[in-house]
Amino acid sequence: ELRSIAIPLIEALHYSHQKGVLHGDIKPSNVLLADDGLRLFDYGLGQPMEGLLTGLPRLSRTRFNAWTPRYAALELINGESLTPAADIYALACVLLELSNGKHPFQRLSARQAMNIKLDQQLQRPDKIPQLCWDALLKAIAFEPQHRSQCCTELLHAFQTPEPARRTGWLNHFSSKGTQG
Protein backbone atom coordinates (compact mmCIF):
# COMPACT_ATOMS: atom_id res chain seq x y z
CA GLU A 1 0.00 0.00 0.00
CA LEU A 2 2.85 2.37 0.80
CA ARG A 3 4.38 1.81 -2.64
CA SER A 4 1.07 2.70 -4.33
CA ILE A 5 1.35 6.19 -2.85
CA ALA A 6 5.12 6.56 -2.53
CA ILE A 7 5.98 5.86 -6.17
CA PRO A 8 3.56 8.42 -7.69
CA LEU A 9 4.55 10.98 -5.05
CA ILE A 10 8.27 10.50 -5.72
CA GLU A 11 7.57 10.60 -9.47
CA ALA A 12 5.63 13.87 -9.08
CA LEU A 13 8.48 15.54 -7.23
CA HIS A 14 11.03 14.08 -9.67
CA TYR A 15 9.03 15.50 -12.60
CA SER A 16 8.85 18.88 -10.90
CA HIS A 17 12.60 18.91 -10.32
CA GLN A 18 13.25 17.83 -13.93
CA LYS A 19 11.23 20.85 -15.05
CA GLY A 20 13.37 23.10 -12.83
CA VAL A 21 10.78 23.75 -10.11
CA LEU A 22 11.30 23.21 -6.39
CA HIS A 23 8.19 22.60 -4.28
CA GLY A 24 9.26 24.09 -0.97
CA ASP A 25 6.47 22.80 1.27
CA ILE A 26 5.93 19.07 0.91
CA LYS A 27 3.70 17.82 3.70
CA PRO A 28 0.73 15.44 3.96
CA SER A 29 -1.85 18.18 3.44
CA ASN A 30 -0.23 19.05 0.08
CA VAL A 31 -0.75 15.55 -1.28
CA LEU A 32 -4.15 14.69 -2.70
CA LEU A 33 -5.30 11.17 -3.48
CA ALA A 34 -7.91 11.43 -6.23
CA ASP A 35 -9.83 8.80 -8.17
CA ASP A 36 -7.52 9.33 -11.13
CA GLY A 37 -4.26 9.37 -9.17
CA LEU A 38 -2.09 11.26 -6.76
CA ARG A 39 -1.57 15.03 -6.95
CA LEU A 40 1.23 17.04 -5.38
CA PHE A 41 -0.07 20.57 -5.12
CA ASP A 42 0.32 23.95 -3.41
CA TYR A 43 3.50 25.27 -4.95
CA GLY A 44 2.96 28.56 -3.11
CA LEU A 45 6.48 28.38 -1.64
CA GLY A 46 7.91 26.85 -4.80
CA GLN A 47 10.86 28.39 -6.53
CA PRO A 48 12.74 27.83 -9.75
CA MET A 49 16.04 26.00 -9.44
CA GLU A 50 17.70 28.78 -11.40
CA GLY A 51 16.75 32.38 -11.98
CA LEU A 52 13.34 33.88 -11.39
CA LEU A 53 9.96 33.05 -12.81
CA THR A 54 8.71 36.29 -14.32
CA GLY A 55 5.45 37.82 -13.16
CA LEU A 56 5.30 36.01 -9.81
CA PRO A 57 5.85 37.67 -6.43
CA ARG A 58 8.81 36.38 -4.42
CA LEU A 59 8.76 36.05 -0.67
CA SER A 60 11.58 37.78 1.13
CA ARG A 61 13.22 34.94 3.04
CA THR A 62 15.04 37.46 5.22
CA ARG A 63 11.73 38.83 6.52
CA PHE A 64 9.40 35.85 6.23
CA ASN A 65 10.02 32.17 6.91
CA ALA A 66 6.98 30.21 5.75
CA TRP A 67 8.31 26.65 5.75
CA THR A 68 6.23 24.11 7.67
CA PRO A 69 8.72 23.46 10.51
CA ARG A 70 7.95 19.75 11.00
CA TYR A 71 8.77 19.00 7.35
CA ALA A 72 11.40 21.66 6.61
CA ALA A 73 15.01 20.63 6.24
CA LEU A 74 17.42 22.08 8.77
CA GLU A 75 19.04 24.35 6.19
CA LEU A 76 15.68 25.99 5.43
CA ILE A 77 15.02 26.60 9.10
CA ASN A 78 18.50 28.13 9.30
CA GLY A 79 17.63 30.58 6.51
CA GLU A 80 19.46 28.91 3.63
CA SER A 81 18.06 28.57 0.11
CA LEU A 82 15.59 25.97 -1.05
CA THR A 83 17.26 23.09 -2.91
CA PRO A 84 16.21 19.72 -4.33
CA ALA A 85 17.76 18.10 -1.24
CA ALA A 86 15.46 20.15 1.02
CA ASP A 87 12.43 18.89 -0.94
CA ILE A 88 13.73 15.34 -0.55
CA TYR A 89 14.02 15.76 3.23
CA ALA A 90 10.35 16.80 3.40
CA LEU A 91 9.36 13.95 1.07
CA ALA A 92 11.16 11.45 3.32
CA CYS A 93 9.34 12.83 6.39
CA VAL A 94 6.01 12.34 4.62
CA LEU A 95 6.88 8.81 3.46
CA LEU A 96 8.09 7.80 6.92
CA GLU A 97 4.92 9.21 8.45
CA LEU A 98 2.86 7.34 5.91
CA SER A 99 4.73 4.12 6.61
CA ASN A 100 3.89 3.92 10.29
CA GLY A 101 1.27 6.59 11.01
CA LYS A 102 3.47 9.02 12.91
CA HIS A 103 5.93 11.77 12.11
CA PRO A 104 9.52 10.45 12.20
CA PHE A 105 10.59 12.97 14.87
CA GLN A 106 7.40 13.13 16.92
CA ARG A 107 6.45 16.30 15.02
CA LEU A 108 9.63 18.10 16.09
CA SER A 109 11.41 20.36 13.65
CA ALA A 110 14.76 19.26 12.21
CA ARG A 111 16.51 21.75 14.53
CA GLN A 112 14.78 20.25 17.57
CA ALA A 113 15.36 16.67 16.44
CA MET A 114 18.95 16.96 15.19
CA ASN A 115 20.45 15.86 18.51
CA ILE A 116 18.51 12.60 18.39
CA LYS A 117 20.45 9.81 16.70
CA LEU A 118 18.42 8.49 13.77
CA ASP A 119 19.12 4.85 14.55
CA GLN A 120 17.87 5.34 18.13
CA GLN A 121 14.86 7.45 17.16
CA LEU A 122 13.64 5.68 14.04
CA GLN A 123 12.65 2.05 13.88
CA ARG A 124 12.10 0.32 10.56
CA PRO A 125 8.47 -0.78 10.23
CA ASP A 126 8.28 -4.54 9.66
CA LYS A 127 6.83 -4.35 6.19
CA ILE A 128 9.27 -1.81 4.75
CA PRO A 129 11.98 -3.54 2.70
CA GLN A 130 15.54 -2.80 3.81
CA LEU A 131 16.36 -1.11 0.48
CA CYS A 132 13.51 1.38 0.99
CA TRP A 133 14.47 1.92 4.61
CA ASP A 134 18.09 2.66 3.73
CA ALA A 135 17.03 5.14 1.03
CA LEU A 136 14.63 6.87 3.44
CA LEU A 137 17.31 7.19 6.12
CA LYS A 138 19.66 8.78 3.59
CA ALA A 139 16.89 11.12 2.40
CA ILE A 140 16.16 12.31 5.94
CA ALA A 141 19.74 13.10 6.93
CA PHE A 142 19.94 16.46 8.68
CA GLU A 143 23.05 17.61 6.81
CA PRO A 144 22.27 18.23 3.13
CA GLN A 145 25.65 16.88 2.00
CA HIS A 146 24.73 13.48 3.49
CA ARG A 147 21.23 13.53 2.02
CA SER A 148 20.01 12.28 -1.33
CA GLN A 149 20.33 15.09 -3.86
CA CYS A 150 17.71 13.82 -6.29
CA CYS A 151 14.64 11.59 -6.31
CA THR A 152 16.15 8.75 -8.33
CA GLU A 153 17.56 6.85 -5.34
CA LEU A 154 14.21 6.86 -3.53
CA LEU A 155 12.36 6.00 -6.72
CA HIS A 156 14.69 3.09 -7.44
CA ALA A 157 14.31 1.76 -3.88
CA PHE A 158 10.51 1.83 -3.99
CA GLN A 159 10.31 0.39 -7.51
CA THR A 160 12.64 -2.53 -6.76
CA PRO A 161 10.64 -5.64 -5.92
CA GLU A 162 11.15 -7.10 -2.49
CA PRO A 163 13.34 -10.21 -2.50
CA ALA A 164 11.40 -13.42 -2.00
CA ARG A 165 11.42 -14.58 1.59
CA ARG A 166 12.57 -18.09 2.32
CA THR A 167 10.00 -20.20 4.04
CA GLY A 168 9.72 -23.66 5.43
CA TRP A 169 12.54 -26.10 4.92
CA LEU A 170 14.61 -23.67 2.78
CA ASN A 171 14.90 -21.39 5.79
CA HIS A 172 16.33 -24.28 7.82
CA PHE A 173 19.15 -24.85 5.33
CA SER A 174 19.97 -21.17 4.83
CA SER A 175 20.41 -20.64 8.56
CA LYS A 176 22.57 -23.74 9.09
CA GLY A 177 24.38 -23.81 5.76
CA THR A 178 24.29 -26.72 3.39
CA GLN A 179 25.20 -29.98 4.98
CA GLY A 180 26.17 -32.87 2.75
Q: Could you write a compact summary of the structure shown?
A:
40% of the residues lie in helices and 7% in strands. The chain contains eight helices and four strands.
Secondary-structure blueprint of this entry?
Elements: H1 2-18, E1 21-22, E2 31-34, E3 37-40, E4 47-48, H2 74-77, H3 84-100, H4 110-113, H5 118-121, H6 130-139, H7 152-159, H8 169-176
Helix pairs in contact: 1-3, 1-7, 6-7
| Broad shape | globular
* Total DSSP helices: 8
Structural class: mainly alpha
Largest beta-sheet details: 2 strands, antiparallel
Radius of gyration from the CA trace? 19 Å
Q: Which bin fits the share of residues in helices?
A: 40-55%
Which range does the strand content fall in?
5-15%
Q: What's the β-strand tally?
A: 4
> In whole angstroms, how far apart are the ends?
42 Å
Mean pLDDT: 85
Strand line-up of the largest beta sheet: 1-4
Q: H/E order of the elements?
A: HEEEEHHHHHHH
Low-confidence stretches: 60-64
Overview of this structure, please?
By secondary structure, the chain is mainly alpha-helical. 40% of the residues lie in helices and 7% in strands. The chain has helices at 2-18, 74-77, 84-100, 110-113, 118-121, 130-139, 152-159, 169-176, and strands at residues 21-22, 31-34, 37-40, 47-48. The chain has a two-stranded antiparallel sheet with strand order 1-4. Helix 1 (2-18) packs antiparallel against helix 7 and helix 6 (130-139) runs antiparallel to helix 7. The longest helix has 17 residues, at 2-18. The protein is globular. It starts with a helix and ends with a helix. Residues 60-64 have low confidence and may be disordered.
